[in-house]
Design brief:
This protein is of the alpha/beta class and 643 residues long. 38% of the residues lie in helices and 17% in strands. α13 packs across α14 and α19 crosses α20.
């Protein structure tokens, strides 16, 4: 609660929401970026633009430096002259001086500006540790320190009870006891990594607010909120044992009921959750997609709609190809909510996040990005590949969600609420966040093979997190039937069990890449085309396209794995277990048995048609789901066989 306390402190001192600037710090920020930045104008010229820190000095605002512990020591030294001497030298040659000294300087002096008397700095940081000893003697001399200790159990119980009166005191006490035991474990030094299992106040608020809907028990809520699915074995064991010691148990023989969807003119009901259908201003922004209902994903949709209606931002985290985009688009389609989409990558910058360059009549113009458009219009912003973004972009998104503020690259500011008496400030670079604005962030699980940033550890507590995993076998088979109705169920079941074994090997550490539902659906779609061709041939007795078969369909997914011998051998064993003779060698050779020559004996010839030569006549014979193509010009007799 450091950010909240700092903002309330500023309000008590007379600073309104527009006069409180929050600057989120990160490790790679340079001393120059902390003070000024270089921008390009529409005509191609470049100029220096003041940072939020310098602008706060000139305007007399309260500056909150969030994340001082992330700042490099050399960068933090830039603040020394500002704090001690009230003086600052900038990259463009200008100077900021104390207001008393400014009065003695001749007015004709250029590039000398006054630091407003009302300018103050409030820095927020975490406790220094052995791995992060950020508290140096220089920083200690710049600030007056106040330790913000965690609330006591009685204070926390009273706070949560007043905020969530529908939750029993016994449940609140169990969660607080869980936090207390994790804290004791970290203080004793038993397992330092257990600090990641502590529940923040934001996470407690999310858990207790979701208990009102009675869709999940306390065990499932905490397990999902702490991302227990993707924890290492050691931390997962600690989490489960600690919850059991606090009398937090999973439900025995829990049966998930079938979830139905009812869509009327004004409302959508999915299971026990009902939501109002919006009246969109821009219908073209509503996503439209092919989505097949299955109980596993409908339950996630149900919880997503619950969180969206409660005003929470949503984080969907899971492996690649498990349907995160599908779930987000389906929810927006059902509720008729306009969508803005942005995809992050390793080269994403603050400028590309907030402005979008467009060429109009040969002139480059910088328009609002989908992020700013969603903030203004109250749309839903879908942020894809959030784990690929640099750390500074992740910190900016965290500030937008948790603190409801963001500094744009063009000098404008996004704030949560503008005083109605100060609406004129909206014309001076302030952007108010629309009350209907929401974010749905999609991220891959941390670790190999995705190798992205650990998005959840940085700002996961600001979102309502949902783990999206591959569905169970029954749901997966039902989904595949809708994608490939012509493929026999036995083949779909065999493929489902095969991919299930591959995912189990990932959990055991034998494989690295988690083969997901997306790869399985692509294989089944390929087979559907083959069986459609087969059915058309059976009716029309015409050959238009050769059938690839299951081997070629699987090679389209696993061909790249043939270049790693150990992985190739592991995959071959799994495929042979299900009777699929897949060999991922360089030549894709399949050897079922030793080849032996057959003694053939000519016995007769058939005249099929007088109009069509025999060698162009083709017959079809189907046996055991295999198609044979004959050129009937001669027939041979195999000894011991009769045809």
């Amino acid at each position: 609660g450091k950010s909240v306390v700092a903002q309330i402190f500023g309000n008590w001192l007379g600073y309104d929401s527009s006069q409180i600037r929050i600057l989120h710090l990160y490790k790679d920020i340079t001393a120059r970026d902390l003070l000024q930045r270089r921008v390009t104008l529409d005509n191609g010229d470049t100029m220096w633009v003041a940072s939020p820190l310098v602008q706060a000095c000139l305007d007399g605002h309260l500056l909150i430096l969030d994340g001082l512990h992330r700042l490099h020591r050399g960068t933090a030294a830039v603040l020394q002259t500002l704090v001690h001497e009230r003086e600052l030298r900038l990259s463009d040659g200008s100077r900021l001086v104390h207001h008393d000294r400014f009065q003695k300087i001749p007015k004709s002096s250029r590039k000398i500006f006054e630091i407003h008397p009302s300018f103050r700095i409030v820095a927020l940081a975490e406790f220094p540790t052995a791995s992060l000893p950020w508290l140096s003697s220089e920083i200690m001399s710049m600030f007056r320190f106040h330790v913000m200790a965690s609330p006591s159990c009685i204070e926390m119980e009273g706070l949560m009870g007043s905020m969530h009166p529908h939750v029993s005191s016994d449940v609140i006490r169990k969660v607080i006891d869980f936090n207390l035991k994790i804290q004791e474990m970290v203080v004793k030094g038993d397992v330092q990594e257990a600090v990641t299992l502590r529940l923040s106040i934001r996470q407690m608020n999310i858990i207790f607010s979701q208990m009102n809907f009675q869709l999940e028990n306390l065990y499932d809520l905490m397990y999902r909120c702490l991302l227990g699915k993707f924890l290492p074995i050691t931390l997962k064991t600690i989490l489960e044992n600690t919850m059991k010691s606090c009398n937090i148990f999973p439900e025995k023989n829990q049966v998930v009921p079938e979830i139905s969807i009812e869509i009327s003119e004004n409302f959508v009901r999915i299971g026990e959750i009902q939501a109002k259908i919006r009246k969109p201003k821009f219908p073209a922004l509503i996503p439209s997609l092919v989505f097949f209902n299955m109980n596993f994903q409908l339950r996630i949709l149900q919880m997503m709609i619950r969180d969206y209606e409660a005003g929470n931002h949503i984080l969907l985290i899971g492996n690649q190809g498990v349907g995160k985009n599908k779930l987000a688009d389906k929810m927006l389609e059902m509720l008729k909510i306009e969508r803005q989409y942005i995809q992050l990558h390793r080269d994403t910058t603050l400028q590309s996040l907030t402005v979008s360059p467009n060429v109009t009549n040969g002139i480059i113009r910088y328009d609002d990005s989908p992020l700013i458009t969603a903030i203004k219009e109250g749309h839903c912003l879908v942020v894809d590949e959030a784990d690929k973004a640099p750390l500074e972009v992740v910190i900016i998104l965290k500030g937008l969600v948790s603190d409801k503020c963001m500094n744009l690259s063009d000098g404008r500011r996004v704030i949560g609420r503008v005083d109605r008496q100060l609406e004129v400030q909206l014309e001076n670079g302030l952007i108010e966040i629309h009350p209907n604005f929401r974010m749905i962030v999609l991220a891959n699980r941390p670790g190999y093979p995705f190798l992205g940033n650990d998005f959840f550890s940085q700002c996961g507590d600001s979102f309502s997190s949902h783990v999206v995993d591959n569905p169970d076998s029954e749901s997966e088979v039902e989904l595949l039937k809708q994608y490939a109705p012509s493929v026999p169920t036995s083949i779909l079941q065999k493929l489902t069990f095969l991919f299930s074994d591959l995912r189990m090997m990932v959990e055991e550490g034998s494989l690295n890449y988690p083969y997901s539902l997306r790869e399985l659906v692509n294989v089944v779609k390929h087979l559907q085309q083959d069986f459609q061709v087969e059915n058309s041939h059976a009716k029309n007795f015409q050959l238009e396209k050769s059938r690839d078969g299951i081997l070629v369909a699987l090679k389209n997914v696993f061909a790249f794995d043939s270049y790693e011998p150990q992985l190739r051998n592991s995959l071959r064993q799994v495929f042979h277990r299900y009777g699929i003779p897949l060999d991922l060698g360089n030549n894709f050779q399949v050897e079922l048995a030793a080849s032996r020559p057959l003694n053939l004996e000519f016995f007769e010839s058939w005249d099929i048609s007088r109009e069509i030569p025999t060698k162009f006549r083709k017959f079809w014979k189907q046996e055991k789901n295999l198609i044979y193509d004959f050129q009937v010009e001669r027939e041979f007799r195999i000894p011991g066989k009769h045809h």
